[in-house]
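FW: tagging you since you asked about this chain on Friday. Here's the raw sequence from the shared folder, copied in full. Didn't touch anything.
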Amino acid sequence: MTRWQRIRRLLWLARLDVRKFDVWSSPIVRRKRFLETYGIRTILDVGANRGQFAEELRWISYDGWIFSFEPLRDEYQILSRKALRDRRWTTFPYALGDRDERRLINVAGNLMSSSLLEMLPRHLAAAPEAAYRGTEEVEVRTLDSVWEGIGIESGGVLMKLDVQGFERRVLDGAARSIRHIDALQLELSLVPVYRDAPAYSELIAFVELLGFHPVAVEPSFIDGRSGEVLQVDVTFRRT
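HL: got it, structure written out here
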């Protein structure tokens, strides 16, 4: 065993690791390379929570427009305060779906797993801290109904969906506006974790029918007990 291998093993004992920061080892670097290669200048951050995704974009020097959508009242307040410091970051206090309506969202203990759908036992077993602690009434809009009012310029548009099983309904509500979108990032479940959410194979087939093909896959939700990957973030590019 080399000296470097011994050092790395000691770091593992402390749950730390050191790797070369490049496209082969870092999902952040891969995302940066994708945005630059395909000229992404506008990002729709759907299910923004507190703006973690947008902050990461700025950290990797993305300087284009960000439009963030977050329906939870407390999370939106934090999100909107962050965006006030950024002239190219606009926020909206509603969810996206397949119809304009008001409905109850389930508020998760970890907030990030909050969903308009019911959480299944497989999710709860892997992340007990995500257990629902209540509900909140929120506004839901379709992307088609708000597209023109937002004022998004065509060309170089990526839509990121982190909507906990509601992906297909968001896409159904974007039947007209989808033609302006050049790339998609979806969270797909390899096993059912939300009731009535589409299977990953069904969602991939649907997105391919819309004219996109997958170009990147990153683990996003892992069962720490077994090491199983339960959800992945898949990036699609228009064919």
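FW: The chain has one domain: 22-238.
HL: agreed, and Helices lie at 3-13, 27-37, 52-59, 73-83, 121-126, 143-150, 167-172, 200-209.
FW: great, closing this out.
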